[in-house]
Design a protein that fits this description.
The protein has helices spanning about 1-5, 20-55. It is mainly alpha-helical. It is elongated and about 80 Å long.
Length: about 60
């Protein structure tokens, strides 16, 4: 019953500990991979809108 009465959020105010270097390296690699995938997907899907718009535009003959 005493365990339930303790506020777990009070423990969050303590000092932060350093992350092990191998865990930090793995997380940073995962973030870089996710960023690369997002940029590649934007590269391929973002240009589709402009390509379709360019195909559908009719050019007026001013000559």
């Amino acid at each position: 019953m005493l365990e339930q009465d303790k506020n777990p959020f009070k423990n969050l105010q303590g000092d932060l500990k350093d992350v092990p270097p191998e865990l930090r390296k793995k997380v940073m690699e995962d973030v870089a991979t996710a960023k690369l995938i997002m940029e590649l997907s934007h590269l391929f899907t973002g240009s589709f809108a402009s390509i379709i718009e360019g195909m559908l535009n009719t050019k007026s003959k001013s000559e």
